[in-house]
Q: What sequence folds into this?
């Protein structure tokens, strides 16, 4: 059962009266402090170290998967870019022929009118 700070202070005051202030300070600093039962053991540290290694391995695996996914996305983007360029080229060619054809039709209908005047 852990002691309270008030109990610890009361004990220190009684010890000062009995053995003096310097000796009481030395004794109180060497006494087991609260939370002693919560200190990590070597086994705890080794288990934590193993957990950290496992976590690092998991992170490395996820990192490798992400790199693969990113490379796949870059490939898809390149394919889409090429497809977009091809479609843009086809559309530009179509519009060019449409404009030229429209101009030719307009001139073809206007030439007889110009010649008639």
A:
């Amino acid at each position: 059962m852990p002691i309270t700070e008030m109990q610890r202070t009361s004990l220190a005051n009684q010890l000062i009266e009995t053995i003096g202030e310097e000796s009481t300070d030395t004794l109180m600093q060497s006494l087991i402090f609260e939370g002693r039962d919560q200190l990590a053991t070597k086994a705890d540290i080794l288990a934590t170290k193993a957990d950290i290694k496992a976590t690092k391995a998991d992170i490395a695996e996820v990192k490798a998967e992400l790199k693969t996914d990113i490379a796949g996305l870059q490939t898809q983007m390149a394919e889409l870019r090429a497809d977009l360029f091809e479609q843009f080229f086809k559309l530009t060619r179509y519009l060019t022929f449409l404009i030229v054809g429209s101009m030719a039709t307009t001139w073809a209908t206007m030439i007889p009118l110009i010649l008639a005047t």
About this structure: The CA atoms of residues 107 and 114 lie 10 Å apart. The mean pLDDT is 90. Helices lie at 5-19, 21-30, 42-116. Residues 1-39 form one domain.
